[in-house]
Amino acid sequence: LYLTVSESYISSSVRTNYNNMLDALVNDAKTNIDATANDLELVLKIHDYILAKTEYAYEDDGTTPKEAIWAHNIIGFVENHKGVCESYAKTFIYLSRKFGIENIAVTGTSKNQNHMWNMVKIDDIYYEFDLTWDDNGDKDFGYNYFGLSLTDVEKDHVTGSQTYGISYLYGLPSVSDTSLNLTKLYKYNPDTLLYDYQGIYKSINAATAVLSEDGDYKIELVNYFGRINSSSMDYRTYVLSKIESSFNSLSILGTYNIKASENSYYSPTEITLSEDVKLTNNVSFDSVMLSSDDYKLTVSNSTLKLKGYSKLTCEIADENGTLIADSDDQIIISSKVVITNLKEIRNTIISGNLHATNLIVDNNDLLNLKLKTANNEIIVDNLNININDNNINYIINIRKYK
């Protein structure tokens, strides 16, 4: 085993200066990150802390990764706030260990180049992280490479490449079978009229499992993309298997604020069903695509509300349920829907088959329903128009969408 030292760090005074910088880094991080948080919170905060303070280091041509030694270690971060993949990975390791989180380096190749990333232990399970590829530039970052399973990371990473001709000193631990689906939970506080943060969870299912009967809740699904406009981005799909807890109401918020072009957006955050799901409490989905080819969502004595830019591609079954599709943007329903009450339909395109027992139009409602193809079948048994004020005009606009 040979220990080599770069000429840049031979001087004792230089090393002392850098050690002081590292001490200052740790002190600053511990000022900004709550050390008593759970593993997942800590890793998320460390990830964000690093990416908010660094950027990728290039040579003067703006495309070639920096070759200087500082760009390949933690000094690039503390001194220049720049670095290449090794600097990102080593800084992540250093800060994680200062907060008691196990974090190890992984070398190999990614996107046709030599690369370094990380494996991090959260609640006794290892996940893969790549802070370099999460950095979108200009201090903007996402979470596409935050907490990946082995299957997901291997889509564009090859572990253990012998490109450098080195022998590895240890084997890598086993990695989770499933990627993290970061889910932030909030509970409404009637005293402040605000939603109080309850914590971050590994999945929607983990978050909904802790809901209480008397609560009104909001779930935010993490924006994995950041602000970037890249058509090559992969999408992280959330998985919903059940919502068994009792609660007053639940709002699930995704995102679609990434433009694919001037007049179109990427798909909203996707939630796919892994089994049949029954809603027995009022749930709204805002900027979410509910999808499944094999399973259905049953609305049982409750209300399913779609908002924002949302899509519905899973079958909706009915047990005296209500469907509201009310958006300032656009809602697309392309699946089979059977529902007792259909109301507050606005800016909605139907390209599947829909059977509603009651179509309800109340005061100030604007019913705007568009049919996308000639094959639609929409059946309404009863049309209920409840206008109490003769001066109020209502519009029923059902037309073929081109």
Describe how the helices and strands are arranged:
Blueprint: H1 12-32, H2 39-51, E1 55-56, H3 74-80, E2 82-83, H4 85-98, E3 103-110, E4 113-122, E5 125-129, H5 131-134, E6 135-137, E7 140-141, H6 150-153, E8 157-159, E9 183-189, E10 194-201, H7 204-208, E11 216-221, E12 238-240, E13 249-253, E14 259-261, E15 264-265, E16 269-273, E17 277-279, E18 282-286, E19 288-291, E20 296-300, E21 303-307, E22 310-312, E23 315-319, E24 322-333, E25 337-350, E26 354-361, E27 366-371, E28 378-385, E29 395-400
Parallel strand pairs: 1-2, 11-13, 12-16, 13-18, 16-19, 17-20, 18-21, 19-22, 20-23, 21-24, 22-24, 24-25, 25-26, 25-27, 26-28, 27-29
Antiparallel strand pairs: 3-4, 3-8, 4-5, 6-7, 9-10, 9-11, 14-15
Helix pairs in contact: 2-4, 3-4
The main β sheet shows up as:
16 strands, mixed
Which residues sit in consecutive blocks of at least 5 with pLDDT less than 50?
A: 161-165, 228-233, 391-396
The radius of gyration over CA amounts to 26 Å
Instruction: Compute the number of strand runs.
Output: 29
SS-based class: alpha/beta
As a percent range, the share of strand residues is 35-45%
What's the number of helices? 7
Cα separation of the termini: 70 Å
The mean pLDDT is: 85
